[in-house]
Amino acid sequence: MNDSSDTFDPAPPPGFTRLPVRSGYGLSIGPLFERETEDGGFIRGFRVGPHLTNTLNNCHGGMLMGFADVTFGHAISHRTRDNWITVRLLVDFIAGAPFGAWIEGTGHIVAADESFRTVQGRIWSGETVIATGTGVFKVLTPR
């Protein structure tokens, strides 16, 4: 673990607001942030803190998977009140993200069949693509 935890600042770039996570898994991986895009979409983000790194001082793959899950799935609930659960999540890791890096991600629905949605997503830091993936999510009842 990085020994700079006492000087770590998770602050996001301008335009991002902190997600109101109050319990559960989100507390252990956060803080997470979000901003709206001009086209009506969204971008979620987080800063790689000391609690999110692996022994190489990069963002842990498990964190990237968790972030992909809550980011890609959010494409379903972003403009609806639908709840969803993850059926399948496939993520390809392309590059590492070092301690302190600002990470962003988004997802877009590419297919819908009855109560299932397929989402393609991307995670990046600056100009570097960190991961890409596809998720299949089952839509449940409205929130």
Automatic annotation (TrEMBL):
Write down the Pfam families for this protein, in alphabetical order: 4HBT
The molecular function terms in GO held by this entry are: thiolester hydrolase activity
Matching entries from InterPro entries are given as: HotDog_dom_sf (IPR029069), Thioestr_dom (IPR006683)
Domain named Thioesterase: residues: 57-128
Q: What is this protein called?
A: Thioesterase
What is the organism of origin for this protein? Zavarzinia aquatilis
